[in-house]
Amino acid sequence: MEKGKLLIVDDEMSVRDSLAKWFGEEGYEVGTAENASEALTRVAETSYDVALVDIKMRGTDGIELQRRLHEIHPDMLVIIMTGYASV
Q1: How far is the C-alpha of 51 from the C-alpha of 65, rounded, in Å?
Q2: In a 10 Å sphere around its CB, with 0-12 CB exposed, 13-18 middle and 19+ buried, how is residue 6 labelled?
Q3: What are the residue ranges of helices labelled H in 11-84?
Q4: I need a surface site. Which of 4, 19, 66, 74 has the fewest CB within 10 A?
Q5: Looking at the chain, which runs of residues are DSSP E strands?
Q6: Is there a contact between 36 and 60 (Cβ–Cβ < 8 Å)?
Q7: Are the C-beta atoms of 11 and 39 separated by less than 8 Å?
Q8: Cβ–Cβ contacts within 10 Å for residue 86, how many?
Q9: Residues 39-51: pLDDT tens digits?
Q10: Whose CA is closest to 39, among 84, 1, 2, 76?
Q11: What's the chain's average pLDDT?
Q12: Secondary structure class of 16 (helix, strand, coil)
């Protein structure tokens, strides 16, 4: 049973792929992107319910991406994640 559409944005392939696999196994439709530019392209092509966004990425960071995503889809839930304990 499909639960919703998730976009996972993380520049670390292992994190991105692991999350995509886990959520996919739970019935979510999952899209992935390795950076903000790719995420914005995906959002232009497909409507997502939730975006899981890494805060620290090369180029545009997760906070700026969140702002841009909300400009495009104000109702999209954006969850910022990090692997850094100091953030």
Answers
A1: 10
A2: buried
A3: 13-25, 36-45, 62-72
A4: 74
A5: 5-9, 29-33, 50-54, 77-81
A6: yes
A7: no
A8: 4
A9: 999 999 999 999 9
A10: 76
A11: 91
A12: helix
**Can you give the pLDDT at residue 1?**
55
Structure tokens at 47: 């409507």
- Positions of the chain with pLDDT under 50: none
User: Buried b vs exposed e over 24-55: b needs ≥16 C-beta within 10 Å?
Assistant: eeeebebbbbbbbeebbebbeeeebebbbbbb
SS3 71: helix
Residue owning tokens 């966004």: 53
pLDDT of residue 82: 83
48, 76 in Cβ contact below 8 A?
A: yes
Torsion of CA 6, 10, 13, 18, to 10 degrees: -40
Instruction: Tell me how far the alpha carbon of residue 57 is from its chain's centroid.
Output: 12
